[in-house]
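Notes from the 1:1 (GR / supervisor)

We went over the backlog. Supervisor wanted to see one worked example end to end before approving the batch request, so GR pasted a single chain during the call. The sequence is below; no edits were made to it. Supervisor asked that the structure be written out right there so they could see what the output format looks like.
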Amino acid sequence: MITIGAFTYTPGEHEAEKASNSYLMSLIAVIAGLPLPIINLAATLIFYLGNRKGTYFVRWHCTQALLSQLSLLLMNSVGFWWTVSIIIDTEVLTSPYIAYMMTVVLFNLVEFIATIYTAINTRKGIHVSWWFYGDLTDIICKY
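Structure output shown during the call:
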């Protein structure tokens, strides 16, 4: 799921800190706005917009963090509104709902752990590429 690679250059201390902060931004937003899935994406998007003209290392990691938050937003939004519809309407808990919510919790947990791991290693100047998001980020980010 996570690949550790090397960039063509060694990022400086300032670059590594900014790249690591792009992942930490999403973790802080999770704590601040847990029930609202849009908060994480908004915080990561604001950080991305502030650093989109930065060095390639910083821009690449900001983009990867943003893409992971986008997919999290989609999954969490469905779960959030499905839960709201159960609370407001007379719907009952069904097996598909429980299975979906278990999947969402698992996906969020894996993403949370991967984000912490990536933030730590990126802070050390190590390039960490996630499965799917890393390849997509390579396509989006150009030197």
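Supervisor's comment: Residues 2-140 form one domain.
Batch request approved.
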